[in-house]
Structures are given as C-alpha cells and as structure tokens.
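Researcher: I'm preparing a figure for a lab meeting and need a structural model of a single chain. I don't have an experimental structure, so a prediction will have to do for now. The sequence is pasted below. Please return the structure as tokens so I can convert it later.
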Amino acid sequence: MTEVGDAVAAVRGVRIAGPGREHLADSEPVDIHLDGERIVDIAPTGAVRPRGPVLEGDGAWVVPGLWDNHVHTIQWALASEREPLGDASSASEAAARMSSVAPLADGRRVGTGFRDALWPDAPSLETLDAATGGAPTYLINADVHSVWLNSAALRREGFSSPDGMLREEDAFEISKRLNSVETAHGDRAVAAAGAAAAARGVTGIVDFDMAWNADSWARWVDGGFGSQRVEFAVYLSDLTRAIEEGLRTGEPLTGTRGLVQMGPFKVITDGSLGTRTAACSHPYPGDEADRGVMNVSPDDLIDLLTDATGAGLGVAIHAIGDRAVSSALDAVTATGATGTIEHAQLVKHADIARIARLGLAASVQPQHALDDRDLVEGYWAQQTALGYPMASLLRAGAEVRLGSDAPVAPLDPWQAIAASVYRTDDEREPWHPEERLMLDEALVASVRSEVRPGERADLVLCGADPHAASMATLRRMPVSATLLGGRLTHLG
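Model: Understood. Here is the structure written out token by token.
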C-alpha cells in the first residue's frame, strides 16, 4: 500500500492525456516506469515487470505536474485565516461583515479579496469606523494594490488617509506587515497550503512574495516542505542583496535539496485595473487626465534591468496597462533582459509581436479575465489595445504561462485552464472567444515537462479525461494522486 511520501517505481494502468501523449501509437492503458526522479519507460500495461512499489492508476488520465506561475506565497497561505470579502456588494456590507470578525492573535481584524470598483458606495473612513470601532481593521483589495483601514489601524501603522484607503506602495507596505506573522505560524500555514496545492496537482510555483524568502524556503524545506518545486523572486528592496550574495536565476538555493531555485527580479511598473492605476494610453472614463500611474519611469526601468541582467538575474515585469507594457518592452530592447511580462492585461496590437520577438514569456492569469470582464467594459471602454490576450500571443509565437496571482484568484491550475479554454465561468457567453486557448495549448502553458522517458516524474493522475471534460468538470478536475520526482505528495 503506497502512502504520501513514498517513492514509487511504476504507475500502472493509466492513459496519458497531457504533453507526451503525441508520442504514443494509441490510447490504450500503459505503465509508466520510474527510476528515482525520472521516467525511464512507458510500456503497455503488464509488459514490463516493475522494479519496486507500484501505484495503481485504475485507468486514470495522466498529465505532467502542473505549475502556478504567479503566487504570493505567504499571503496565499494566510488567506484561509482572513475574512473573505469577494462577494461583498457594497462598502457598507464589507464594513458590517468586518464588525463581527474575530481578531487574530496580534489583535488585528483582517479581511481580503474585496472588489470596490463596482460598488455603489465608496469606501470611507466614517463607514469603516462606525462598523468596527477601536479594533484595528484591515481590508485588502483583491488585487492587493489598495488596502482599506479604519482609524485604529491607521494609528497603529503610522499612516493617515482621509478615506482610509492606502494605494500602491503604501498598500504593499501594509500587506507586508500583515504577512509578517510569527515564524512557526507562517511555517505551518505554508506547509498546509502546499499540501492543498498538491491535492490539485500542483508540482511547482513561482513565488512572488514581497519578502526575502531565501532563508524562509531553506527553513521550510528543512522542516519537511516537499510538495512543490519553487522559483522565488526578489523585489527592488532586496535586489542589491541578491546580487551581493551571487544569486543567479535558475541556480539551486543552498539547503533546499534541489527543490528551490533562484527566480527573477520582480519590478512593478504600474498599478491595477481595479484601482484605476494601470497605466493606459487612453484615459479612464470621467477624467481626461487619468491614465493610470507609472510606478517606475522608463529611464529608471532601464537602469534596473541593466543591473539585474548584468548580475545574471532574469526579470519579471509587472505591466498591466498597455503603456506599461510598451515601456517594459522598450527597456528589454535596450538591455537585453530575459524573463516574463507579468499580467499583460492590455496590450497594443504591435506589442503582441514585440513580446514574441524579444523572446519574453507572457505570464497571464486567465481567471482575471473573467473576474474583471465587467470592469473592463466600464473602465477600459475607450482603450483600443487588446484586453487579456492569450491566443493572440500564442499565434504571434510568444510563450504563454498560466497562473493565478494567488490569493487574488484560487491557486488551482484547473480553474486557470478552464478559464483559458472557455473564457467564461457562468451562464454568460464566452468573453472575447477569439482569445480562447485549445485545451492542449492550455496544458502546455501549465506544465514544465512531458510524460515521456527522460523527463522528470512529476505526474498528476486525473479522474476524468481533460479532453472530454465539460467546463464544470475541468474546473473541479478530480485528482487522485500527485507525484513530485516519483514521490507521492498527494493520494486521494
């Protein structure tokens, strides 16, 4: 009997549904034979005798291990402890709900995931104070680019705001403080979140925490974390430290048993759609002067990318509005930087091809397109660039990588895959169906390997055939087992 943590030598009686199936002559069940972390053979069921423990596949469909290419790890891990506000329909409702939330151990009340852009009433200090009194209360926007605090919280943190709203850099600072929990608390939360991700077939994440996580990942792995492979990013505040310590993108982190490697330098060049701070070519409705904000000037961005590239660091450039995307591409052209454009939610037609020509990957979050479609119809009605392109990027020859931006959207690649394939998650017609991906394209954008000999034995056993699944089934795909390098991280 195999258990979580066991290494297996073969997975018996499965059908390959993801990348790698094109190498098979038919769709009959096969046995996948492993030697340590690698696949060494794929043979008709029963044709080759296993050389060790066997995982019975029972006819499951197998895809390579899934990656989430954009995760805010600690915030994602702590999200389950915070009041979910994604369904709050007004500022007054969100404030009222926070009034009954039990304070955390540090005395703070924390809510998360609110979307105020379409609320009929504006968030105000008076509304939140009336509902929450003297208990420090924090409401984090779904996009993390704004935080709504009551007077007690503002005093505690040393900030002031006439309406209680802090945006961009101030909001990021509050978010970092809220994520700085006691070490043992954070360790438990990350371990639990990793196990939950493994249950959805996740074998890898790109960690975009706004913190120096090199030491944390070494501690987490030493403490038993082994659910996912990890690439961890650094921000401007830690860029000099990363360079001085000689960290280079793609190299393994000491003391992590090969699970964690250095990722990119992350730079946030503009804001977000929900806060109307994404930098766009055309104005937002109602204010001809409002075209969002550029957090980093074009000249400063070139300097930053020059420093990172010279030190061997790839880059991950947050660029949501088309003006920010153009600025990012100009800087990459000037510096020769390599890496990703993160989000790319509004892209000029000409820049679609530029992303491909520059060899950048577009790291996108398909669920955002569905969550934001009503905002787009209002806030970006005057824009002429492409909104939430995916198929256009692929057709131009760009690499597309899917992710969640967790906890902004759930860390569940099946939801991202379904959102990219169907471009709807309710009874409405697909939103801009011309940007839909084919299922095989969505799977390729969600993995880093194939199911074939010589590849890593990062495997997911699915209870349904992804190619025949309905939208509902694809979004909640049953996962019976997940293997990371031939070792079971989940067994349903």
